[in-house]
């Protein structure tokens, strides 16, 4: 049985092992486990039951990871996406005064459309049509984006009214926890210590507990809260999706998830070395796994589910097969019952891993054709746009809208595919819809 699984997940071809995949899955889980606590807090602000959202988040994430790992065989994990959950709670429910039950139905309808365009292979055609240079830019941009998240989460970069952002206070003890984690992890990587990123996170957590910057967990095991308050609610309000305002909400859920996921999949595939002839193998299965996770998540009772950039942490420690995602999914299931232990995984513990992964992903910058402005400028807009707009999809929009314009200016318009021209128009509409939504 074990040998058959190794053949199915291509262990030999991918030069991986059970040990590598387990450590990678655990690293990915630890890097993204914060969503188990952040999502209930965000959606709780919209009036949803926090306990039910906790369980829905764990189960939807587990489902997404398992399907991605088993069906598409990629080391890419899924969970309710940050950003779109805030749009759900603060813009749709609180701002537009739409009941959370109706907003959840909006996610359900968007997921059905998502599945339809996946079956029709429209998403696959779009991803394959993006030029190689822009794919490298997307990968690099995601690297800068998650490094920025890590620097902010760790307290090294903070908001500043005078300069937008600035250096965090070195008088804050928890910031030194991040600095320790960053230094020890990089040293371990330079010394080529196996699983250096995970070891670094473990060492940082231990130091935090010893210095009392991270409190000891209140317990070890706890029961999973009931799903009853949110399960199946999305079915009961289909009739409420009957206004222009609600269709704008549905389209926003659809488009943000669509382009965030597309960018994340491309970036992670580039990082792991999966791209072949500018195409992502089994991309159709990866997209099917992603859209089905969004569908299941809406039924369980959570905001849109999508591929997570934190999967890059698992890839960085050697995860290459779908078993990485399978292990991550299993850890999400266990996480429901060991939630007290997750409290030691603070943002200062995961921040160094995100910063280092950002460094690794930024290596794709060397593969972009910087000699030609018609390619360099759209690529740069993608790379710089993702961290500065705090959005993968917005960063992609800046580059994919300008790419055909500059290619025409360079008299290379015939090299631009019809799909890329269509994408430019779609992204203009996408930004307009986002503006209307906000």
TrEMBL record:
<keyword id="KW-0472">Membrane</keyword>
<feature type="transmembrane region" description="Helical">
    <location>
        <begin position="197"/>
        <end position="216"/>
    </location>
</feature>
<dbReference type="InterPro" id="IPR006043">
    <property type="entry name" value="NCS2"/>
</dbReference>
<protein>
    <submittedName>
        <fullName>NCS2 family permease</fullName>
    </submittedName>
</protein>
<feature type="transmembrane region" description="Helical">
    <location>
        <begin position="380"/>
        <end position="406"/>
    </location>
</feature>
<feature type="transmembrane region" description="Helical">
    <location>
        <begin position="51"/>
        <end position="72"/>
    </location>
</feature>
<feature type="transmembrane region" description="Helical">
    <location>
        <begin position="418"/>
        <end position="437"/>
    </location>
</feature>
<dbReference type="InterPro" id="IPR045018">
    <property type="entry name" value="Azg-like"/>
</dbReference>
<keyword id="KW-1003">Cell membrane</keyword>
<feature type="transmembrane region" description="Helical">
    <location>
        <begin position="244"/>
        <end position="266"/>
    </location>
</feature>
<dbReference type="Pfam" id="PF00860">
    <property type="entry name" value="Xan_ur_permease"/>
</dbReference>
<feature type="transmembrane region" description="Helical">
    <location>
        <begin position="21"/>
        <end position="39"/>
    </location>
</feature>
<feature type="transmembrane region" description="Helical">
    <location>
        <begin position="321"/>
        <end position="342"/>
    </location>
</feature>
<keyword id="KW-0812">Transmembrane</keyword>
<feature type="transmembrane region" description="Helical">
    <location>
        <begin position="287"/>
        <end position="309"/>
    </location>
</feature>
<dbReference type="InterPro" id="IPR026033">
    <property type="entry name" value="Azg-like_bact_archaea"/>
</dbReference>
<feature type="transmembrane region" description="Helical">
    <location>
        <begin position="104"/>
        <end position="122"/>
    </location>
</feature>
<feature type="transmembrane region" description="Helical">
    <location>
        <begin position="172"/>
        <end position="190"/>
    </location>
</feature>
<keyword id="KW-1133">Transmembrane helix</keyword>
<feature type="transmembrane region" description="Helical">
    <location>
        <begin position="349"/>
        <end position="368"/>
    </location>
</feature>
<keyword id="KW-0813">Transport</keyword>
<feature type="transmembrane region" description="Helical">
    <location>
        <begin position="134"/>
        <end position="152"/>
    </location>
</feature>
<comment type="similarity">
    <text>Belongs to the nucleobase:cation symporter-2 (NCS2) (TC 2.A.40) family. Azg-like subfamily.</text>
</comment>
<feature type="transmembrane region" description="Helical">
    <location>
        <begin position="79"/>
        <end position="98"/>
    </location>
</feature>
């Amino acid at each position: 049985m074990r040998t058959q699984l190794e053949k199915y997940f291509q262990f030999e071809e991918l030069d991986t092992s059970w040990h590598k995949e387990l450590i990678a899955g655990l690293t990915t889980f630890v890097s993204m486990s914060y969503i188990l606590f952040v999502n209930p807090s965000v959606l709780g602000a919209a009036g949803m039951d926090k306990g039910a959202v906790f369980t829905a988040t764990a189960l939807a994430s587990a489902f997404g990871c398992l399907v991605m790992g088993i069906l598409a065989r990629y080391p890419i994990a899924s969970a309710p996406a940050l950003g779109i959950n805030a749009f759900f709670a603060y813009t749709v429910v609180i701002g537009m005064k739409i009941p959370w039950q109706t907003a959840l139905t909006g996610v359900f309808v968007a997921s059905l459309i998502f599945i339809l365009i996946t079956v029709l292979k429209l998403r696959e055609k779009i991803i394959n049509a993006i030029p190689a240079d822009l794919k490298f830019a997307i990968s690099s941009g995601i690297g800068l984006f998650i490094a920025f998240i890590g620097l902010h989460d760790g307290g090294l970069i903070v908001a500043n009214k005078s300069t937008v952002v600035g250096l965090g206070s070195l008088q804050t003890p928890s910031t030194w926890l991040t600095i320790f984690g960053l230094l020890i992890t990089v040293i371990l990587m330079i010394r080529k210590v196996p699983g250096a990123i995970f070891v670094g996170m473990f060492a940082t957590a231990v130091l935090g507990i010893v210095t009392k910057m991270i409190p000891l967990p209140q317990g070890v095991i706890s029961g999973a809260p009931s799903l009853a308050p949110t399960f199946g609610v999305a079915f009961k309000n289909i009739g409420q999706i009957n206004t222009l305002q609600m269709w704008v909400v549905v389209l926003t859920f659809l488009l943000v998830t669509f382009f965030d996921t597309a960018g994340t999949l491309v970036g992670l595939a580039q990082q792991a070395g999966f791209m072949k002839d500018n195409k992502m193998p089994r991309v159709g299965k990866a997209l099917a796994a992603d859209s089905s996770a969004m569908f299941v998540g809406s039924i369980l009772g959570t905001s849109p589910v999508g591929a997570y950039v934190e999967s890059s942490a698992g890839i960085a420690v050697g995860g290459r097969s779908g078993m990485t995602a399978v292990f991550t999914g299993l850890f999400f299931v266990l996480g429901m019952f060991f939630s007290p232990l997750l409290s030691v995984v603070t943002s200062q513990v995961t921040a160094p891993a995100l910063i280092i992964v950002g460094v690794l992903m930024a290596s794709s910058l060397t593969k972009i054709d910087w000699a030609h402005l018609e390619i360099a400028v759209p690529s740069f807009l993608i790379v710089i746009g993702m961290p500065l707009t705090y959005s993968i999809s917005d960063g992609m929009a800046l580059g994919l809208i300008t790419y055909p314009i500059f290619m025409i200016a360079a008299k290379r318009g015939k090299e631009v595919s019809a799909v890329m021209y269509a994408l430019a128009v779609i992204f203009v509409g996408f930004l307009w819809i986002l503006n209307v939504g906000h």
